[in-house]
Amino acid sequence: MILERNLKKLIKDSIKKYPVVGLIGCRQVGKTTLAGVLQKDFGKRVVAVDLPDTNPLTIKFVTTILGVDVETKHKLWMQKLYAGIGTPPLQREDESSIVTFVASEPGAIGYVKKENLNNSVKVIRWDGKEEF
Fold first, then answer.
1. Which tens digits make up the pLDDT trace of 3-62?
2. Domain 2-125 indexed as CATH 3.40.190
3. Structure pTM?
4. Residues whose CB falls within 8 Å of the CB of residue 116, separated by 6 or more in sequence, listed in order
5. Which residues, in sequence order, are CB contacts of 11 under 8 Å at separation 6+?
6. How far apart are CA 56 and CA 12, in angstroms?
7. Rounded distance, CA 5 to CA 7, Å?
8. Domain boundaries in the chain?
């Protein structure tokens, strides 16, 4: 697929240029899957990081992008966890903590509002949406 090839190339080129690359986008669009594919290419682990379920950004994100409520999202992760096919993302208390974590942890991915970003991470838009 052209999008996949182009996106993988963009990420690989960014990884060569920057010590840390953040793959930021809405949930359930394939960030972790893509990172897992790239992990095989680079031999590095992927660490997903998220905001708490009670955070207003998480609630807005889950309801707007995923079209479910936070409880449903939690149940889906628990099903994946118990089936042995996934691990829920680590949680950080706020967006600045996520940016700091992604900037300091090779292989880390997460999502934040664009106004809370800085130049410590390379941002890659995955969902194509300006606002959600």
1. 455 667 777 777 777 666 666 665 555 666 666 666 666 666 778 888 999 999 888 877
2. yes
3. 0.61
4. 95, 96, 99
5. 21, 23, 34, 38, 124
6. 33
7. 6
8. 2-125
